[in-house]
């Protein structure tokens, strides 16, 4: 089912790009695209779902997971599963998206056409998420929410509304994910590990709007803010989480 969501978005993009041009819609879609990377991928998917670097109340959790689902990022429970596997098997056999594993170069195709594997429950964060009704709800409706959003946008506006308000943000989110996967592990072996090839990257930090401290993140995966002397490696995502009062931060992280 997920492949149908992404395939529909892709078809919408290819068909609308050469036909429609709405300057007012374009500006809004670019803003939504930036929000897709900063909040959809960096804050919600990576820091909240992947590592629980902060907590949120029920209504805020619904908004965060709703935005995650709207972008077609699949199930929050499945995302957590894959990301925990990535950290546990970083750049080794079993890492689902390392550029140093041959299958990882097929990641864009896997995102569009292949299903996620079954959900194991041997990770601590994953067990906790399975007990939360909000996570279970957005897991069950991981296909229905994007399709419903497409239908509402198409019925209230037109196919151009689907393209500008859903396709563009979803492609931005996909871009942010791919940049983290490839640029975050594109270096040679680092000095602290014989297998983990994660690295801190200025280019990645600029392209992902604040997620370039990837090696530092692998050392301290739940730390909210990674402090670096280089201003080009400023942890904008962590700073943003600290500044948002609706997010409940643990002083021990």
Notes on the protein architecture:
With 253 residues, this protein is mostly helical. The protein has one domain. It has 12 helices and 2 strands. The chain has a two-stranded antiparallel sheet. The longest helix has 28 residues, at 23-50. The chain is globular, with a radius of gyration of 18 Å. Residues 112-122 have low confidence and may be disordered.
Labels describing this entry:
single chain, globular
Return Rg in Å. Answer: 18 Å
Number of alpha- plus pi-helical segments: 12
Helix content: 55-70%
What order do the helices and strands follow?
A: HHEHHHHHHHHHHE
List low-pLDDT spans: 112-122
Largest sheet: 2 strands, antiparallel
Strand content: under 5%
Number of domains: 1
Mean pLDDT: 81
Query: In total, how many beta strands?
Result: 2
* Class derived from helix and strand content: mainly alpha
Distance between the termini: 37 Å
With strands numbered from the N-terminus, the spatial order across the biggest sheet is: 1-2
What is the approximate shape?
A: globular
Q: What's the structural blueprint in terms of helices and strands?
A:
Elements: H1 2-17, H2 23-50, E1 54-56, H3 58-70, H4 76-88, H5 107-113, H6 124-130, H7 133-140, H8 144-156, H9 159-183, H10 202-207, H11 214-219, H12 236-243, E2 247-249
Antiparallel strand pairs: 1-2
Question: Summarize this, please?
Answer:
The protein has twelve helices and two strands, in the order H-H-E-H-H-H-H-H-H-H-H-H-H-E. With 253 residues, it is mainly α.
């Amino acid at each position: 089912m997920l492949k149908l969501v992404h395939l529909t978005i892709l078809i919408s993009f290819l068909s609308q790009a050469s036909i429609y041009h709405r300057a007012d819609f374009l500006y809004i879609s670019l803003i939504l695209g930036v929000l897709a990377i900063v909040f959809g991928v960096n804050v919600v998917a990576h820091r909240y779902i992947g590592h629980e670097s902060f907590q949120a109340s029920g209504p805020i959790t619904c908004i965060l997971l709703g935005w995650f689902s709207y972008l077609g990022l699949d199930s929050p429970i499945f995302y957590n599963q894959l990301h925990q596997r990535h950290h546990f098997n970083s750049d080794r056999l079993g890492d689902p998206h390392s550029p140093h594993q041959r299958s990882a170069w097929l990641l864009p195709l896997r995102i569009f056409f292949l299903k996620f594997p079954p959900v194991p429950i041997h990770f601590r964060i994953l067990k906790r998420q399975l007990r939360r009704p909000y996570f279970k709800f957005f897991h069950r409706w991981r296909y229905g929410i994007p399709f419903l959003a497409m239908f509402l946008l198409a019925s209230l506006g037109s196919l151009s509304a689907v393209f500008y308000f859903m396709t563009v943000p979803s492609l931005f989110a996909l871009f942010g994910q791919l940049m983290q996967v490839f640029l975050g592990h594109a270096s040679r072996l680092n000095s602290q590990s014989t297998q983990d090839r994660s690295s801190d990257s200025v280019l990645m930090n600029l392209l992902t709007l604040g997620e370039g401290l990837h090696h530092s993140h692998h050392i301290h995966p739940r730390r909210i803010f990674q402090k670096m002397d280089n201003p080009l490696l400023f942890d904008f995502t962590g700073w943003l989480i600290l500044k948002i009062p609706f997010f409940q931060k643990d002083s021990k992280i």
